[in-house]
Write a structure and sequence with these properties.
It is built from 14 helices and 7 strands. This is Postreplication repair E3 ubiquitin-protein ligase RAD18.
């Protein structure tokens, strides 16, 4: 049984009452990967794409995929407003879509839902009688509406806000009851009494820095591969910490992909670590790099010295004949198009029944040859 995948798409809104949200969601998706914008950037021609998607396109073609104008990676700028719109829409998408699908199902069933009973209505006179005891209170204002004449009471008394004073002495003297003691050198660490003496001997009095997620602060520049030899290029790979195996063409493609991954990560609000980027590079190696499964190529088989040409031609003889017949039909059609009335005459001849070919001897009288040769 084939496995089915439910991939979110802008067409999910078409069968719901909120079908107008389909073009809105489509405008928040990248036109290259068809997914929501991931770290959107703005090109010099004012088109928005994912940072990684447009960097890959520019490294291969150097043109914008939408308008085909020339562009450069250095001209890309972050589009923060689109990033915020995408995040807010993604947070609200699931609840809105579930409500829209429920409403579509209700309309498909004919809208026969149980309605809640309405609240009982009271007469205007009864409402006025209920409000008369309240009208006797002092310090109140009365206001009569034009529609029903219901008196609304508004309190004139304003409650004064209570001010609670905060004591800072209690916060300074607070000590958590966890059985630990602070370092006397004020390094910010707390420990048990048995470990205090060994810690004081090595403590410098400086607070330990809190572990922070590594941030990418610089971008990788593009390099001219023609100016670097193989040894220099592999040395560059060792400095970057990426694999250096493979031929020169593979090395150039790997460096381009690593540069795109690294620079796109610089555009992220929450950059990934280098270890995570290396995992993505490994996935690229298995799908498009040197570690991908090679496919059988007919060109490699034909180039071999022990290639059997006769067996190849006999097995593909029908294909050759079909190609030759198609080429002849195409050339005949081109010739007929250049001669006026040729195609119409050929059609008439094709529709007429075929007749046997008559020779001149069949039309003329029989020839008699005498003895003198006359």
């Amino acid at each position: 049984m084939a496995q089915s995948f439910d991939i979110p798409d802008s067409t999910d809104w078409l069968d719901t009452p909120l079908s107008l949200l389909a073009p809105l969601e489509n405008s928040l998706r990248c036109q290259i990967c068809k997914d929501f914008f991931a770290n959107p950037v703005l090109t010099s021609c004012s088109h928005t794409f994912c940072s990684l998607c447009i960097r890959r396109c520019l490294s291969n073609e150097g043109r914008c995929p939408t308008c085909r104008l020339q562009d450069q990676e250095l001209k890309l700028r972050r589009n923060w407003i689109v990033q915020e719109l995408v995040e807010q829409f993604q947070n609200a998408r699931e609840p809105m879509l579930s409500l829209a699908k429920k409403e579509a199902a209700r309309l498909a069933n004919g809208g026969d839902d149980t309605q809640q009973p309405l609240a009982k209505k009271r007469k205007v006179g009864q409402i006025e009688q209920d409000n008369e005891p309240e009208a006797a209170e002092s310090g109140s204002q009365r206001m009569r509406t034009r529609s029903r004449g219901v008196r609304v009471e508004m309190s004139a008394q304003v409650e004064e806000p209570q001010i609670i004073e905060d004591s800072q002495d209690d916060d300074e003297d607070f000590v958590p009851e966890d059985g630990l003691y602070p370092c006397p050198l004020e390094c910010g660490l707390r420990m048990k009494e048995a470990a205090m003496f060994s810690h004081v001997g090595v403590c410098t009095g400086q607070k330990a820095p809190s572990p922070a997620k590594p941030q990418v602060t610089f971008r990788l520049p593009a390099i001219n591969y023609s100016l670097l030899k193989d040894g220099q290029l592999k040395k560059k790979f060792r400095e970057l910490g990426i694999p250096e195996w493979g031929n020169r063409s593979l090395l150039q493609r790997r460096h381009t992909e690593w540069m795109n991954l690294w620079n796109a990560n610089c555009d992220s609000r929450n950059p990934k670590s280098k270890k995570e980027l290396l995992k993505e590079l490994t996935i690229w190696e298995k799908t498009q790099g040197g570690a991908q499964i090679p496919f059988a190529s007919n060109a490699d088989e034909i180039a071999r010295k022990d290639f059997d040409r006769e067996r190849w031609s006999s097995s593909h003889d029908d294909d050759f004949k079909r190609l030759i017949a198609n080429a002849r039909k195409k050339s005949d059609a081109q010739i007929r198009s250049t001669i006026p009335g040729a195609s119409q005459g050929l059609k008439e001849n094709a529709s007429a029944p075929a007749r046997p070919m008559e020779t001149p001897l069949e039309k003329s009288d029989p020839v008699v040859i005498d003895s003198d040769g006359h």
